[in-house]
## 1
Amino acid sequence: MFHVGHEKVPMCSGHGPTRRSFLQAGSAGLAALSLPTWMSLESQGAVNLADQKIRNCITIFLVGSPGQVDTWDMKPEAPAQIRGKFTPIDTNVPGIQICEHFPQMARMMDKVALIRSLHHKTGASHENGQRWMMTGHEFNADSMKPHSGSVISKVFGNRGTLPASIVLPGKIGNTGAGPLHGQTAAHLGSAHEPFVLGADPAKSDFKVVDLAPPAGQTEFRLNARRQLLGQIDEVQRKAETEPEAGRDTAYARAFNLLTSPEAKQAFDLTQETPKQQDRYGRNTLGQSCLMARRLVERGCRYVTINHFDTVFNLSCWDMHADGGGLNNTYADYERLLCPQFDWAFTALIEDLEYRGLLKDTVVCVLSEMGRTPTINPRGGRDHHTTAWTNFLCGGSIKGGQAIGSTDKTGSVPQNNPIEPPQVLASIYHAMGIDLETTMMPGPGNRPIRLVEAEPIDQLFG
Amino acid sequence: MEQVFEGTPQAEIRLEGRKLVRGDVTNDWGSQLLWEIRRNGEVVATVPARANNSYEHTDTTPGQYEVVLQMFKYEGYAKDPAGNFTKSKMIEVSNKVGYTVG
């Protein structure tokens, strides 16, 4: 036992202070437990990460947000203005139907757990949803919260030379309402910023910018530069007062990537057969999924794939049909988005399973929100935060189920309403993290929970 | 970043009796794949082709039938007032096969 304030806290055999005991201890006690103290406890065995089987995570983020009624929560009995244009098809799980434009996914529904009752209570902007689903928190510029990949980086660190968290192909940019998308390390620091590919892996001239030495830069010169950077780091390290600062730096990380054959290989899709590249789809999403598999296979713990970096002036899930810069319609879903997703997602799951990686890799398909159940006068659907569907599979996720349900129009949860932090808690849990014992530094370096929610029990059977 | 689709998808199709059979698509963009079926030069059906490698068209209306695989080529989201893509379109990605119904 150890004490926080006057509260006795159990802490042996991998059972560290629990969330409940922290709450019981009160804020005065919490303030007294600094991160160094926590790390010291960890070194004494109070927080036993070694006992936890750490898994990987690949998140596919559908920027723009698919309409739940048009995809994974169809309402064929509803009036035409609600049920929309598409038809549901059976899956390999009796009782679960999905959109006709996901025929490959329908054959592997036994691996997938749909969450049909997702909702949040904040405004219906893309950015609100991104913050919820990328971090498990709502926040503003004064209280930034770290991306889930940065949390994983902080808690578990790197395996090998690859960064713990990688974003493919690029970060989310302009989605209409500000710069806070929840894709930074926030207070966890630059060492835990996700590495961003920043290039389209589907292009024939694809190169990872940060991995290719500048023209004329030889390995020798790089090493000389490294020594210089090392000296700078040493100066910086002495100047920093925070104990964590200087242990890892963006410089060191970039250098490792720049010089590591292993890292270069991980990003090199030419090592895949043409047939394999075709199976994922020769498009940005498909080749990002293929790269994600290569990355987790080689030690990256957390890959985020953004299916689009904006919602403006391109084909994406944001189906407003506004006749202008947001003119996505059923035609985009039918011709491009659904087929492309179906092909890439199922290739990823098949490939992970074939290589024995699916049991150790949680695959999440997330979005900011859903879309209005009633089709707007232009033939599109607008933003809707009170019900949508996302899904998880792999790792310890129990597939072949639909958790929660919505009313007959897909407007609101009918039972088992689920909020975004529960999804993040479930992802962490599925990755093998004990949320009761694994903490991260919060404001003032106090240890705090990764997310203030419990995992969704049904996901785990 | 807007998606760029490079190269050209290609597949071989053949007839086994009245059943249409396709091989894998090389340089597959992953977008919508359809059987386009014409009778006497007029399009009479477009049928999803991604889920299965074969399809048998059951229409027995007499005529000369011709079949080709098509895939959606994305070249921008722009649409006309009727909602049709102005640049993006379905393109042929296979050889053509034909048969006659009596």
Note: The interface with chain B takes residues 100, 103-104, 169-170, 200, 202-204, 274-275, 278-286, 309, 313-316, 321, 323, 327-329, 331-332, 334-336, 339-340, 342-344, 379 of chain A (CB under 8 Å).
## 2
Amino acid sequence: MAVVTSRRGRRTAAPYAFLAPAVLLFSLFILLPVGYTAYLSLRKVQVKGLGLGRGARSEVFAGLENYQRAIADSQLWSGALRVLLYGLLLLPIMLGLALLFALLLDRPRVGLRRFSRISIFMPYAVPAVIASMLWGFLYLPAMSPLNYVLDKLGLPEPNLLSPGSVLFSIVNIAVWGGVGFNMIILYTSLRAISPEIYESARIDGCSELQIALRIKIPLLIPAIVMTTVFSLIVTVQVFSEPLTVRSLTTSVTSTWTPLMKVYRDAFAADDLYSAAATSILLAAITLVLSFGFLRFVQRRAFGEDR
Amino acid sequence: MTSTPARRPRPAFLPTAILLIGAVYCLLPVAWVVAASTKAGSTLFTSFTFAPSGSFFDNMGDLSDYGGGIYWRWMINTALYAGLGAALSAGLSGLSGYTLAKYRFTGRSVIFNVLLAGVLVPGIVLAIPQYLMLAKVGLTNTYWSVLLPSIVSPYGIYLARIYAAAAVPDTVVEAARVDGASEFRIFRTVALPMMVPGMITVFLVQFVAIWNNFLLPFIMLADDKKFPVTLGLYTLLNRGATEPALYSLVITGALLSMIPLVAVFLALQRYWRVDLLSGAVKA
């Protein structure tokens, strides 16, 4: 190893010593588990004879068998399609509202700006499980104010937790939980733009809408890409919301999303090996989807590294 | 807004109205839980759901009595997991981020890129093997099983590096070095004070992340005395399917669990740097 910028020995040792705790914990709790999952995904249990007695069950190499089974599993596919639909609804609605609110907050002449900003951001401080409980109770036909009002008006009452509507109800929980955080990210990016850019546009007679569409949104593209990819990573792993809503309705099955299936396979069905294969597949999809992001972050924030 | 241009004194109607609708949407479930927590369990299903009643202190008493006061134990556990975990995480991220930003050494970009890739690893790939590995050393179902995996945060290190690069001038580090300060002393007495707003931001982000991480305690813990409040309330909700009386405990418990985090945010909001999260930091 080359001695880099130092004149004294302790300066070359210092960065390694400072990074040692992080590298150790990172290896133990991130690298090693990833490797272990990959290893498990290639293993299976072989049962000899009747599978009774000691040594009758042993772990052997399985090749890609677990992956083949995972890909052929219709439960996993219907869960994946459900999450795809969930993401196609969630990402545009959540990020669209976040962008709209951020642009409105950044506009001149807006009343109660601080109140709106803090109120919309507040759900960020509510864990997904708690948020799902609050909304879940609001969806319960026996407790929902919506059903109460419709009942008093003599109108038909919807069941927001029925198999046909529960997906949309869960999208709403995620929109509620995520819109404020993304709004703050976009709003802060807008505040970092020099206001002089808009001044000349205003003098030229541009409306606030035109400034938003033609100047602000194009300048926000990097922040929009970043919030999209972060939201995408979270979306693929949706777990807490459907699991909590499941306590209130039978419309959500135990394999409703791929992550719920992984959990069930690993801990309820005791099939660690297919759970491992499924989670590697999920991770691969997430990595493919977010690879563009990594390149983006490196170029934007750490241009000096190249 | 404090200074409104004299020519346009009135706020624009439509933007203000849209933002207020957004605010009402976000406050709606909270308003409901405040109203519902004042109702006796028997009226939960029969009275108009936004109409308050007078049973809040009864509900709180029931909640405190439940399981010998286990709810408060869950709250203390949550404070421990999220508070201690986030503090350790912010410290570790600060030291690592400072090192990655301020030293030039062999392997720097390799280490940084591997850490950054960690941001993209989905939690589930980690949860199962973390459980198996901690089971091998007998640490599952302990406080450590939730605390230890929460300390290292690739995202926190990434944020701390950006902040250190912007907030700590090379010349100051160099001057302290010329004065003969040790490398760790430079970090602790020179760099760290300059990084405080960035560290508060990392602390809050990690605090929310740990508080919000349901999967980890769900997998690791079996003993309800060690549960964080999210997991505890989830088990109550699950049992509520057969014992609806528990629903009013869940509602009161959910409301009380939201207060500390909202309070922490409001208390720290002037110190934390959101621009760090959007990558637009100018220290």
Note: Residues 240 and 246 of chain B are 5 Å apart (CA to CA).
## 3
Amino acid sequence: MSDWHDVATLDDLWEGDVAEVAVGPDTILLAHLPGRQVRAYQGICPHSEYSLAGGDLDGDVLTCTGHLWEFDLRTGEGVNPSNCRLYEYPVRLSGEQIAVSVPTDGRPHYNRCRG
Amino acid sequence: MPKLSRSDWYDLARDMNWTFGYVNEADVFPEELSGTGRVPPEAWLAWDEPYKISYREYVHNQVTKDTTTYSLKNAVGRSKLFDQLDPGWKSVVVAHYGAIAMPEYLASFGEARMGRFGRAAAWRNTATFGTLDEVRHGQIQTFFPYGLLGKEPRGDWALKAFHTNNWITLAVRHLFDDMFVANDALSVAIQLTFTLETGFTNLQFLGMAADAIDVGDLEFGSLISSIQTDEARHAQQGEPTIKVLIDNGHKEYGQFLVDHMFWRAWRAFALLTGLSMDYYTPLDSRKMSFKEFIQDWVVKQFADQFRDYGLDFPWYWDEFINELDWYHHAIHTVVWNYRPSVWWNSDAGVSPKERQWLEEKYPGWNRAFGKHWDVLTENVRTGNLAETFPETLPVACNLCQLPIVRAAGVLAGAHTDPAPLRHVHNGRVYQFCSEPCRWIFTRRPERFAGHKSITDRLWTGDINPPNIGGVLAYMGLSEAEHGVDADNYAWANGKH
């Protein structure tokens, strides 16, 4: 089971921006990619739990400031290293409103990947 | 010219492996230096580091880190920030530099050994970066305390400590000689990069950087963060190494190397981090107790990793968990009692409020340790300071080189007998603080038997005269360098 949550508007998140929002125990990274594409992933790096919202977004690739791990935010796949991926939340855009769907099992959702 | 992406050329540039035609395998990779002979050479080709980096990117990243960190140091150096730091925190920093700066430099030997004798080109490549990392860490952690000399003359113990026979140095040097200075490439990967760095220091450095910022020590916080980013990259050598070993049927040997070093890493952590977190860091800045830190980070996260690789908990796991409640408290008491023998100012950390915190975090602390501090407090209050100094030396363990504190273990309900454990090897009696320390020694006695603990040196006449004054001189401490109570006993008078 999942619930939809309004978390931001496109006014808060311009193209090329990332932001961190919290829904219950989940810390969520929002990214507005070129072409009005909004994605939502786990907000902490799967490597050492740094906040990904402090990372640098270049095109579709986000580089975490912790240890320079890179993620493709179009797909959530790790670029370097390539053996891990970010947990992804479904996103719905209604006009300017951004909503994300978060499972209602009461647990935070994220992948871990050590290195 | 079109620019290829890294993945298009990386493997080709990295994988400088070839078949030997003019020399023997054993001449190129002697077992005592490489340690990889259990696994056939071709099986090592599966070695792959998860996070990739080219030399060009490496240099770019390192220059950026150095520029940021050194600029911050220059700015902070002109301020009064260091003067305003809590005295206990200054002790954290001064203890850290003395115990860690030179070992970081020495770790470059271990990395360089993997860079030459690691059995896969990918491994040697990663280790070459690791070598450069550790040279940088040795230099930066010697240079930063050098900048503090005007304010804290014992900043020079960053360089000096390892050139003395101070008892803390003996313990730390014995550990790191075992772990990387005198260790083969395979064991360095598993014991330094997997067990110590992945298991303990990566996690500790994150917490320490956050604590430094919290107490207002921007310089140390920035330094530690800059180091930690390197550690996380070269620490990844452990994972592929242990994977190759296990995939080729040598789980038991990997388990032995982990069990050996996990215990030793725990001992060093209890000494350095245990005291820092639970006694030296100002109460307001403590986010968690040392026990909570070990439970949340080391036990939970690192233990998950054991199991991911099919390894088991070390055989002494119950004893390790049990020690979280008492071992570092006992060591803290010893370090404070012998405060002139260390190069930092020991912070008793037992003001009424701090004692309340300790009892809350470690139920039973008052019963096992508080009683001892009651006596010390009374002696300080009545001006009887001489009574707070011991007249003899504790007996050091012949493996970890730390004082044998089993008597405190009896008070804490962990042991029934305070006597040291014994083992006779070639007619010489060796004494140990714990079963795991004895086990590590007896599995490979030839590795450790020739070493003399500080107690042995006293008994065999290396230290003259054999009294406290002679011992302090032997340890390289001039009177001006003797540690004193960090708070000038304010804690005993209920102030803090």
Note: Chain B has one domain: 52-493.
